Every structure is written in C-alpha cells, then in structure tokens.
Amino acid sequence: MREREFWQLVDEVFGRSYGRSLSRDQSLTALDSMTSVEALAAGIQPRVVWNVLCDQMDIPDSRRWGRDHNAPPMPADGRF
Predict the structure, then answer these.
(1) What integer pLDDT is reported at residue 64 of this predicted model?
(2) Name one Pfam family in it (predicted).
C-alpha cells in the first residue's frame, strides 16, 4: 500500500473531513500513541498504520478496504 492509497481509504471509509481530522488527532495506542500522520512521517508502512487505525476505530474487515480495493499484503518483516 502506498501513502496515496492510505489517504484514499481514509476519505472513503471515514469521509474526507472527519478522516483527515482523525488522522491528525487520534492517538494510536499500538503505535506508541502517535497519530496516523506522525506514524507515516516516522516511516511506518501505510498498511500497518491503516490496520491499526481501523482496529482502534472498530472498522470491520468488510468495510476497511473500501469498495474497489483489495487488501494489500502485510510487510514482509511483519513489524510496525
């Protein structure tokens, strides 16, 4: 997953305004309380950030990849 795809999913799943606000303001417990924006800037892979955000916001797998998206593979090392 590329960062561009991350932002497309944020807009689709949460709505543009709420999703952008959520990405800037919501601390992600599993990522040392960084926000999504901070985690991406720190080099954490977008798919990892997306999954953590969706897990924390209780977004089910059936909704988290949007209408036209397939779940991209997890990072090869399996780490954040």
Answers:
(1) 86
(2) DUF3046
